[in-house]
Model the fold of this input.
Amino acid sequence: MNSLLFVLEDSLSGLMTGGVYALMAVGMVLVFKATRVVNFAHGAIMMVGTYFFFSMSAMAQALAVTFWVTVPLALIATGLLGALLERVLMRPLLGQSVFSMIMVTVGLISVLEGLAALIWTTEAQYPPALFALEITFINGIAINLQMFWSFVVGVGVFILIAVVLFLTRTGVALRATAFDQGTAYAMGINVPRVFSLTWMLASMTGCLAGLLLAPLNSLTPALGHLGLSVLAVIILGGLDSILGTLIAALLIGWLEAMAGHYLGGDWRGVMPYAVVLAIILVRPYGLFGTREVERL
Amino acid sequence: MYIGSARLSYRADEAIWQRPAHRGSVAALLLALLLLPLFGNDYTLLLAGQLCIYVIAITGLNLLTGYTGLISLGQGAFMGIGAYATAVLASRYGLPIWITFPGAMAITALAGIAVGLPSLRVRGLYLTIATLAANVIIIFIIRKMEWLTGGDRGISVTPASIFGVPIQAELAKYLLIMPIAAIFVLFAQNLFRTKVGRAFIAIREQDYSAEILGISLLRYKLTAFALGSAYAGAAGCLWTYFFTALTPNQFDLGLSILFLAALIVGGMGTVLGPVFGAVFVVLVPEVLRSLASLATPYYPMALQATAPLTEIIYGLLIIGFLIFEPMGLTALWNRFWRYIDRWPFTR
Done:
């Protein structure tokens, strides 16, 4: 009975982590949908955004203002960074091979990590946690409230984005671009603006995910490596499916927790990669992705 | 000025180096490499040895990524397999380098074939992510097989010995590694004058079309993976004897990214590309370090800034070359020599 309780506890905490993964993954999915580029640097952008928040909250503290003021500021700053990166790095490569664009994002990881190490040093920092660490018991099951609220915010923002995507004009423009870029141009959709918007939105959601994750891990330039394990989420979900991403994120979070529970903590990190390898071998288009048909 | 080449025999037409200038420059390069120990100190030889190992590994990646178009983020882990295979064979079983070198190559080639299997089903981005995942998993396995590999504590070997001569001094190591690197580069150069090499290039251009032309994708994609990883295995083997101590984290994703970066900067799908790329990734930190030590009297923090700066410069180089010169340094090099060749008529 007792061991079942532990499994249940770990499952819950895994699912909650999955909620934050969903928030991280949605940025990558948005960028992929619009531009067909998997942004390997998404995690690095998230890391830089979290450092923005760290510095701003330190300033806020010096001015005796609550750090909540700096949350939107950090989000906006990261969004602008994303738009800038898109404009300066990705736009010149428009129409070039996807390989070049993906490798540019790989190069971007090095640049952002190096810059962060240069500016904020590689020492672990502890930005203020959005939600206090608190543990409550429901029917004897321990629930970490910090993670619970992170989960709520993660899934909430995820649903918000899905609503925007399916119900607003901007969302329609984005989906049209994703569906067929040429036709989208022909229908008068400002496709480059869509690219800018998606990068901005993706960076902002990434930054938010970073704020939620920073108290759980500590903030170092290596925080961005989490972005690579989120690759598992988007591949499992099918790269371009919003619903698939949410389900895959929860599933990966749960699998990680189970690996940690049954095999030991160091298996957690390798779990997403094992999943991704299996998925690519068995079902490369993921659970809910569109199968790509290639014509010669 | 260079006008044209008259080839008077089939032999001349088939030669690798067609002009006296080519033959001369290759001879001069080899001579310079042989004479380097006379001028360089131990530190130079250390860098040169490391450079040669990188050249082998990156040439292997080039066979796979540059020529066959299978983008791999797993070359670092393959090198790790080669290195650990060598270390285990040498330290646990006491085998000499004559056996560990081909052994490491064979084991790594088998691992490469295993990792290459997804390439029959998926391409492009998916394959890149699959190799990335394989990289993480391979390093994890090496770390977990503590009874064999020593885990995070690492493993060490005694220096290799050839004909009873221990390869311990930097000079001896250099004289062992440099010719091997030269042979491996020459092999790659020659490979693309054969059926296999041309099949690789056809697969890169469009694999379905290649299959329609009668090229077996199964056979040639796996051959490319086997060859590319065998190169990595050779590099790993030499790495083991070069540094004589290993830890798993030397071969993590960072090394794979470094190799891919070097290949892009040097020029994909060219024989010279990996050489230029390796020179670049080895020399950039050195140049930065010497600049930093010059700057230390004015900025005491300068030396600490070199590691992040190196990372930034690597990243910027990848991005810059991809945006402005996707063919890499080799394209610049070729353009320079074309300018010289056509000199009075160039602007």
In short: The longest helix of chain B spans residues 217-243. The beta strands of chain B are 155-156, 161-162, 165-166, 245-246. Chain B has a mean pLDDT of 88. The first strand of chain B starts at residue 155 and ends at 156.
